[in-house]
Amino acid sequence: MAEASVLLDQNQFSCPICLDLLKDPVTIPCGHSYFYSCPQCKQTFTPRPVLGRNTILAEVVRNLKKTGLQAATPADHYAGPEDVECDFCTGRKRKAVKSCLVCLASYCETHLQPHYESPAFKKHKLTDAIGSWQDKVCSLHDRPLEVYCRTDQQCICYLCTMDEHRGHDTVSAVAQRAEKQKQMSETQREFQQRIQMREKELQELREAMGSFTRSAQSTVEDSERIFTEMIRSIERRRSEVIQLIRDQEKAAVSQAEGHMERLEQEIDELKRRQSELEQLSHTEDHIHFLQRLQGFSVTAEAGFAPRISFCPRSDFENVRKVVSELKDQLENVCENITAEIHHTG
């Protein structure tokens, strides 16, 4: 209630023209606090009336400034560093909410009221608060840019159509905006169509990528399983081949050991007979020599087995060859698989 009262008091004691609080109020015969021509009731006084200082009103205004001025204007209504300032505020500037393209000025909510209430501002065009007028005002004529020159493709003011742009193809900025807006709408529709088309392509690509990824994972799993089975099969074949080689080795070694044992026995027998013959050759008893010699075989080969030869069924060269060929075949198969994958990719 106190804040509403303060706002009411401030409005009652503000100048209806500049909307600031009265500074040194005086009274004229019509009852309003202005000069000899009253802006409110339009009554004029000739000759100029003697103006007397309204001490009561001045005191009320002074008290109002002390007690209610800060409360009447909230802090968030004042212009900040990034806000557009009101051109008519004195002292601390309030935040501008609108700009007038005719007055070429910006107004806060309070100073904007005459544009809404006074018929004199009826034809003025308001827009959002403009921080810099350089891009909105003609640099040659200091007038609002309200015309578009299609010949030079730039915004101009009405005076420019009579000077530098005389005879050019010109239209109002509103008409040019409407035409460009229509073109822009068509462009936006084209963009929307392209967006939809690209989004469809993107979705198809995502689905294809997902399908390809799933196929790749499935192929990896199948390949892992097949290679694992191949490795296990090769391991089994390896064990079988090694076992066969070991079996053949064992049989051949057993056979060779039998031959070696017989050879050693024959060698021992031959050495024994050689020793007996050596001893017999040194005897001086001729009869004993002849009688003993008849007990020996005529030749050294007599009574002995034929020559023993070791000929195993295989020297494993064929096995080595077959295993090597198998390795080459596996490498060729793996290279073909790799080449096929590269070709598919």
UniProtKB/TrEMBL annotation:
Pfam families: TRIM_CC, zf-B_box, zf-C3HC4_4. Residues 133-173 form the B box-type domain. GO terms for molecular function: zinc ion binding. InterPro entries: E3_ubiq-ligase_TRIM/RNF (IPR051051), TRIM8/14/16/25/29/45/65_CC (IPR058030), Znf_B-box (IPR000315), Znf_RING/FYVE/PHD (IPR013083). Residues 246-283 form a coiled coil. Keywords: Coiled coil, Metal-binding, Zinc, Zinc-finger. This is B box-type domain-containing protein. It comes from Paramormyrops kingsleyae.
